[in-house]
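Preliminary data (for renewal application), 3,4-dihydroxyphenylalanine complex.
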Amino acid sequence: MKQKLEEIRNAAHTTLADALSLDALEEARIKFLGKKGELTAVLKGMGKLSAEERPKIGALANEIRSAIENEIESKKAEIASKLEEIKLKAEVLDVTMPGRAKKTGEIHPLTKVMNNIKETFIGMGFEIADGPEVEYDYYNFEALNIPKNHPARDTQDTFYVSDNIVLRTQTSGMQVRVMEKQKPPIRIIAPGKVYRSDAVDATHSPVFHQIEGLVVDKGVTMADLKGTLEMFIHRLYGDQTKVRFRPHHFPFTEPSAELDISCFKCGGKGCPVCKGEGWIEILGCGMVHPKVLSNCGIDPEIYSGFAFGIGLERIAMGKYDINDLRLFFENDLRFLSQF
Ligand code: DAH
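Predicted structure:
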């Protein structure tokens, strides 16, 4: 019996030494120490022993039981720490690694210039007016002194939605919309998209942006127009920029002018950007035509005003030295993230 017990001790030792998992340990515990285990089987046979031998075998059996129990416990700890080690290795976290930068979006260059222009005019006491891009022929043309068959319509290739509805070709219709609703003093800018049936090339797009401006009050003169627009240009391009007003014709202003600035590239000497002229055309402007005022129920004998229309893309191209309009609309991040 003693020999049997020693065999169990050795067998248990080998089994436990080979055990690689907690499950294997539990299996071994049941095999050797469980109710139906080998050690229990031996103890059950103790009744057959002599009174002299029984305590010795009993003591030996207890010693072996606790030896096996101890071995199971220490093996358990060993396996647990191995498992922990494997887990830690799998979860390696190198806190010295540089973080992954989150890519945030950027403001589109057209939006940047638009915001800049808006801020400048808001700073001069202007309010922002907003109106529809799908517009009545009346606001886009008729009320602006551009009747049907007027040659000015030819220069603005129009998308017609129906006989009397168009995609607005200019923001100037907003002058009429504002004057119909609001009595002077009026000081607004109306930024937004406009549409013309132009083929796409480096300087043309069927959709682009304008910023309309309108000031109406008693005693508004050409001097106010010049002062306001000069201030605007200096804010946008710097004080060194020269401004000139060149006579022009628009049906809804009288007198009318185009505003040129000294070339931002060459300073006025003449270069490819200004086509050797030294000047670059920036916007159209003029004193609001008396007919337009009366079309809106404002008495031209009492009130006068000035208006202007700025092309946003042209300004942005000049400011950022961009030579192809299409870049604004192609959404190529390599281009857009440069501003
Ligand atoms: N609407 C004109 C255009 O698209 C620009 C313009 C010229 C607007 C003179 C004005 C103005 O308000 O007074 O070409």
